[in-house]
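ok so i was messing around last nite and threw this chain in just to see what happens. nothing serious, just curious
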Amino acid sequence: MVKEVEGITYDELCEIELKDGSKRLGKVLEAREGLAVVQLFEEAQGATTEGTKVRFLGRAFEIGVSEDILGRVFSGAGRPI
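result:
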């Protein structure tokens, strides 16, 4: 949960920066006045509330498609496995 937010929307993509500087992607599952519930697309190991920053990107998750990706497997963050 992220408190004290403004102008965010449901399904908005966000970037979570952990205390160690690593970044992970997530999306807004629920948006209320001043509050957002965020789902991480990647592992939550090492994530703490202290020192973590969230940046909302103002757009939904997108991935380009073509015949080249047929049969490929992707992670929740859209990276090829």
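not much to say yet. The first strand starts at residue 2 and ends at 3.
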